[in-house]
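JOB MANIFEST
job_type = single_chain_structure
chain_count = 1
residues = 123
[input]
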Amino acid sequence: QVQLVESGGGLVQAGGSLRLSCAASRLTFSAYAMGWFRQAPGKEREFVAAIRSTSGNTYYADSVKGRFTISRDNTKNTVYLQMNSLKPEDTAVYYCAADLSIVSVTTTRPAYWGQGTQVTVSS
């Protein structure tokens, strides 16, 4: 089955940076749009960022635009989320997601999910 494994989460101070990684296996990585979602306690899971399979076009939630950068390395089957200028409200479990459709990775439910990695930003 398709597997997405996130890593890089942890505890950082407000204003700091963190880079998340998501390694994909058992799928044709270059054919999939990839994305990041997050879920804070008591809140719904929300879209964070997405990247198309080949064009490299990126999409961001307004709350993270200018601070977060999504990128991918198709030779390594890995997608990244560089998070800068972190705020306490960024605290959440971050999930990697994949789908053949960019629409599903932004506005609907992606086909595949990772297990999540905790990001905690202290004030």
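[summary]
Residues 6 and 22 are 4 Å apart (CA to CA).
The two ends are 40 Å apart (CA to CA).
exit_status = 0
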